[in-house]
Specification:
Number of helices: 6
Mean pLDDT: 93
Strand content: 25-35%
CATH superfamily: Vaccinia Virus protein VP39
Distance between the termini: 14 Å
Order of helices and strands: EEEEEEEEEHEHEHEHEEEHEHEE
Low-confidence stretches: none
Radius of gyration: 19 Å
Number of strands: 18
Number of domains: 1
Helix content: 10-25%
Largest sheet: 9 strands, mixed
């Protein structure tokens, strides 16, 4: 039976050449994405900034609708060298394009870097694994896992999947065994259960609210339990991991760990939970929490 570790963990992103958290505070954060800096909203940065000025190419001004609306406000001469088509960045052997999107992101989630490292650690020694990436976005997690075998990448956004394919080409990984699917994550997973499929690892990063390719409505609190129950049916005692991240909700990591324990209780291994966080650059840099996670491992 999988053991629930009650003490929470912190998975810390310390930044790297392509990403740095420069400062945070007053509900915002100031970040460097390669050569360009941006300001984005961050409600959990309740302290005061360490620096008086944040020169940036743009700031995202959030909206108030459920779909996470808002707009970028770009500033003067800082945007002169900002390519409309985006600019190349890298994490380890994964290459990708960064670009401001209407949803405040820049086409990747930098706080996931320690998660990619952890997943590779769980798959150490495997070259023929099969993993599933639900809500796969622009594919960095899929590309990171592809060194260990086949990956099925699922996202409801045709645009995101197209960008994931472009990132694979940038990384010279277009020949890796990755299935790129535009599909509803819940419907796809239910079909995989009916097909009696199994996976060695599953990563899922569901939004608080979203829509599938055919207009299907996703609400986290309503639909996550059923999705996790189906994911559990795709794993067995030889599987290595499941990793779940949740952003922007009033929910404890212990709650989603309990959900995994209910679904995976018959399997061996352990269930852990906690926060993803990014460390500010420089001496005395603070830890900025960005998401909660729960994970099951069996290696």
């Amino acid at each position: 039976m999988a053991t629930l570790v009650q003490q929470p963990l912190v998975m810390e992103c310390t930044g790297w050449d392509s990403y740095r958290l420069l400062d945070s505070g007053a509900g915002r954060k100031w970040e460097a994405f390669g050569p360009h800096t941006f300001i984005r909203p961050e409600p959990q940065a309740m302290w005061q900034p360490r620096m008086e000025e944040w020169p940036a190419a743009g700031e995202f001004i959030p909206g108030s609708d459920e779909d996470g609306g808002g707009r970028w406000q770009f500033s003067g001469h800082f945007t002169e060298n900002l390519p409309d088509e985006g600019w190349p960045l890298a994490w380890d052997d994964v290459r990708f394009t960064a670009k401001p999107t209407p949803f405040r992101h820049l086409q990747f989630f930098p706080d996931m870097a320690p998660v990619w490292d952890w997943m590779r650690g769980q798959m150490e020694g495997m070259t023929e694994a099969e993993t599933l990436n639900l809500f796969g976005y622009t594919g960095l997690g899929s590309l990171a896992l592809s060194r260990h075998g086949k990956v099925t990448h699922v996202d409801a956004s045709k645009k995101s999947v197209a960008q994931a394919r472009e990132n694979a080409a940038l990384s010279a990984m277009e020949d890796r065994p990755i299935r790129w699917l535009v599909d509803d994550a819940g419907k796809f997973t239910a079909r995989e259960v009916r097909r009696h499929r199994r996976y060695d690892g599953i990563i899922l990063d569901p939004p608080k609210f979203g829509r599938g390719p055919d207009g299907e409505v996703w609400r986290l609190e309503e639909h996550l339990p059923g999705l996790i129950a189906d994911c559990a049916k795709l794993l067995d005692s030889d599987s290595r991991f499941i990793f779940l991240t949740v952003y922007a909700v009033r929910m404890s990591s212990l709650a989603i760990a309990g959900l995994l324990q209910e679904a995976l209780g018959a399997l061996p291994g352990q269930i852990e939970h906690g926060d993803l966080a990014v460390r500010e650059e420089g001496e005395g840099g603070r830890l900025l929490p960005t998401a909660i996670f729960a994970r099951w491992s069996n290696s």
